[in-house]
Queue: 2 jobs
Job 1
Amino acid sequence: MTVKRRNHGRSKKGRGHVKFIRCDNCFQACPKDKAIKRFNVRNMIEAAAKRDMAEASVYESYDVPKVYYKLQHCVGCAIHNRIVRVRSRVNRRNRAPPPRFRQEFKKPTAAPAVKAQKLPGPKATAFWTTAATLVTVYRYNKRESTRLLDEYKQRASHAALETIGSLDTPRKVHVYVAVPMSELGTRRARQHWEKYILPVFAAGALDYEITLVNETETENGVERVIRGGVHRLVADEIKDRRRRQLESEDDNEELRLWRAALDERKAENERRELKNKLGVEPGMSVFELWKEKEYPGVMDIVAIGRETWIEVVNGVSDGAVGSLNVEIPPLVPLDSE
């Protein structure tokens, strides 16, 4: 009978019978001396969970124990799993055991205690991710705001180069600023006006008149904002222009007389208000300097804020279709009276 190996592939060594074992792969009965044995060392915890356990542990350094497996395979399973390989006739005569790679442990030397660098945990990672996102969004918003502002300033710059004739009326804009919702002052609206709109007006050399409407009242110790101030101002301005247009007609002499009486009462009230401020009777020169000159043309309207825009739209509607009846206001009382 052909013999491939001198020991017949076993390590029986003159024993008549050897107990069998079960293959770890196929559970086939195989003599114990014929089975291929391997010693396997594995970590008790997988690599992905090792970091989580280190973060949750109270110890700074802890060596996770290992698990030792002794694997026993039959010849067929060992060849199939490539634990051993079929050798040629010449290499089969080499009976030297396979080399063993063992780690050489050296005696530890005294070294300075260095705290192991730990990776950031889930909470720290979430915090830094959120912080980086907020900083990125803020910088992007600031950069885009600057770019858009420069673009609008470039568009408006051509208006500053246009020449105005001696008989032409320079263009002027009336800016209304009201109290934003859920606030008691116009600080945020004024900041928006100064930061985003005023530079465009300056680039276009555009004249403007700004009106801040901030009317409040205190009821039961609680201060609240009174809405409708912009609505009233816009409606009164449009109604006044409608009255002047009717007064310019020939058959409206009564309206012109009413206008003269109304203007006289307004001038007297302005003189009384100035006297209350100065404490003495103002001269005509002081009164003319203090009195604001009326713009001869029609000013465009710019509304800052959503609430202001709503009141401007309602004021335009009320001024266009509302009643033109007006009463002569009462005299302003003097402080000396």
Note: The longest helix spans residues 122-160.
Job 2
Amino acid sequence: MDFIDWISIPWESKHLSVELNQVTNCIKAEPHHASNYLSAGRLHLIRGDYEEGLKIFEQGISMVTFDDPQRSLLEQRKVHAETWIQRRVDIVSQCPYDIFSNIARYLTQKGAQECIGVCRIWRSRVFEDPGPWRKVSLRS
């Protein structure tokens, strides 16, 4: 299966969390097994957490011996994660304020809450507009 293929697999969030907890425990128990790092990094990438996936791959590279046959796969996955991070385009931060403001008016309160949870840039853009965002509750 290609790298892109397994990132696009539909996963349920709770299943990812359970699997991630299991593989994290495996890493703690057997820190020199490349397969554990490959699995954990893959799960982070599936969740969209590319930075954490990259950290896991780097950690694996530092822990796995040079003669481990899966070390090169860890190095490849690290490069792929770095590529994904560099390619990511944040449309909201690139969008002029007035255009973002017009788009944001169509968001529901739930949509606004999801936007402020994406990253700091999105959160600051959402709260820059004094209009509909005064009603956003940070509690779910």
Note: The chain has a mean pLDDT of 80.
